[in-house]
Design brief:
By secondary structure, the chain is an alpha/beta fold. The chain has 5 helices and 9 strands; from the N terminus they run E-E-E-H-E-E-H-E-H-E-E-H-E-H. Bound molecules: guanosine-5'-triphosphate (GTP). It comes from Pseudothioclava arenosa.
Length: 188
């Protein structure tokens, strides 16, 4: 599931999913990397779902609006369960260089506990595998006021994807967008 329900405040309050990087929307970059991995894929987003029609993606709305990506995760886990899946993998839409073996390497660690991607000694809570069986625990944490993905990953395993340049470089600001363009020009 591509997490794309953010407000993009640091980018000037725009929908980052549609932000062009080398002429292609960010959602298209992430989808191109994920599509050969494992499906089905959905996008976690609010607002008008018609904007994702060109990609034929199911759009999962947050059950709790304006509460952050944990609300998106909960909707995603409900969708995954309805698909008969054991687990859901999340990737942030602003992370266009996700590795081609992301899903396989996360799932290699098992699908009974959360598994989070790491690089450069840092965990990336938006890029993780979440067992469907964890949904009640996550909903409980949310009900108690937790809003941080990282907090509900406290007992998670991690997989190190460290590489140069960082596969989890994410685009938050116009300067990040420029850096991503330079990176793509150097290695399309
Ligand atoms: N479904 C859902 N996803 C969210 C929400 N808030 C953030 N996200 C996603 O979570 C990921 C990380 O978000 P951030 O970079 O912290 O926030 P952002 O809104 O994208 O950007 P800023 O407003 O500049 O912080 C991105 O993929 C966002 O699209 C939300 O309320 N619901």
């Amino acid at each position: 599931m591509i997490l794309a329900g953010g407000r993009g405040i640091r980018m000037g309050g725009i929908d980052k999913a549609l932000l062009p990087l080398m002429g292609r929307p960010l959602v298209d970059h992430v989808l191109t990397r994920l599509a050969p991995q494992l499906g089905p894929i959905a996008v976690s987003a609010n607002g008008n779902p018609a904007r994702f029609e060109p990609w034929g993606l199911p759009v999962l709305r947050d059950g709790f609006m304006g509460e952050g990506p944990l609300a998106g995760l909960m909707a995603g886990l409900g969708w995954a369960e309805a698909q008969g899946a054991k687990a859901l993998v999340t990737v942030a839409v602003d992370t266009p260089f996700v590795p081609a073996d992301l899903v396989a390497r996360l799932a290699d660690r098992g699908v009974d506990l959360p598994v989070v991607a790491a690089s450069g000694g840092r965990r990336h809570p938006t890029v993780a595998l979440w067992p469907v069986s964890e949904a009640p625990r996550i909903a409980e944490a949310f009900a108690e006021g937790e809003r941080r993905l990282g907090a509900v990953l406290s007992g998670a395993r991690s997989v190190d994807f460290s590489a140069a340049p960082d596969p989890f470089f994410n685009i938050n600001t116009p300067a990040d967008l420029d850096a991503a363009e330079l990176r793509l020009r150097a290695a399309p």
